[in-house]
Write a structure and sequence with these properties.
Blueprint (H helix, E strand, L loop, with lengths): L1 E3 L10 E4 L11 H13 L2 E4 L5 H18 L12 E3 L4 E8 L11 E2 L1 H4 E8 L11 H5 L6 E4 L5 H8 L3 E3 L6 H4 L10 E5 L5 H13 L4 E3 L10 H12 L2 E5 L19 H8 L3 E4 L5 H6 L6 E3 L7 H9 L2 H18 L2 H12 L5 H19 L19
Parallel strand pairs: 1-4, 2-3, 2-5, 4-6, 5-7, 7-8, 8-9, 10-11, 10-12, 12-13, 13-14
Length: 395
Amino acid sequence: MSENIASSLGEASRVLLVSMRNLKFHVSRSGSYEFEDVICNCDTVDLVTPHFNPTLFKVTNTLANSAAKLFKNGKLVKSLVNYKFKLDKEYDLFFIFCQSIQDILILNSIQGWQEKCRYAVCWLDKIWAKDVDNWLVQLQLLKDFDYIFMNFSSSLDQVADIIQRPCYSIPYGVDAIKFCAYPENLYRCIDVLNIGRRSKVTHDALQELVEREKLFYIYDTIKDLYMLDYRYHRNLYTNFVKRTRYMIVNKAKFDLTGKNNPQEEVGPRFFEGAAGGTIMLGVPPKCEDFTKNFDWSDAVIEIPFDCSNIADIIADLNTEPERQERIRKNNTVNSLLKHDWVYRWEAILTAVGLDSTPQMIERKARLRDLAQIVNTSAISHPDPPSYRLSVSGGN
């Protein structure tokens, strides 16, 4: 199947954006699709979303990447079998967000992107230094790009040495407007939110707390989470976060770091928890990216990985309403002023020499206005009258 996309897309668009949203449906991808939506709302964009059977794509993508390694050439194989796009208009910028380096092979089905696009940028997400040598063939395809942005900065120098292209560190982001609990000042009905990888000890302690107290605790109950629709999932998750009091947040793959994987990185959960105004409890990464991007007091309250006394920690915090209000305000305001996706897109445009759009300027003004609202608002007490967790509750 072939398709000439330019004939059906806007004539004035300066950005060509290729998205995996119709191919990959794991919940971990919802954040990157959110970023793409912010780009589309803030710039003039032609969005290319290849349609292919997702179940079949798992097979073809795996086979294509295996074949690329076998042939030692990533340009010889296509993950989208018998499917191609042909461009017949020009763009200032080509952009793709690769959550996995294996995504890169879909470019072999897009004809003319190098010739028709003035600049090409790839955001390479979540590539661990220990895995870089396993993907040398796929990484070679990044040599066709002008700039590479990576949010795992400890892997950056290794990738840059391989592809010999400009590589920049860039932090993850969030739709800070959607995650913001203001101006409604939403009631925080969820006591604890614990999504993704978790400590069994901490989880079991929270389960015991649920049995003892009137505690509303939300957590994952199934494995291999896939979305029916990324927007529905993201909206649900966003509403959870901005209605949450305490959120368990840990460094990326915190249960695997150590001797086997010493690399410490900042996962997206920190940006989401802060933007939602939660009080984050967990194990923050010990790296420059964290201290630079979360440089305010109590951004994360550090607790042990296996925290059997989580009830006592929460109970102690419940006795400090003024501290809680300060934490929520600081997390929300800093997210609005520093971590919205528009700032990431602005950084990318600056690197390639393109100007910000009026829509970007308007969004940044709205973010500043929201930050002002949060700063001048009194945060309502998060506890319903019937809910009390005593300091001795964890004993």
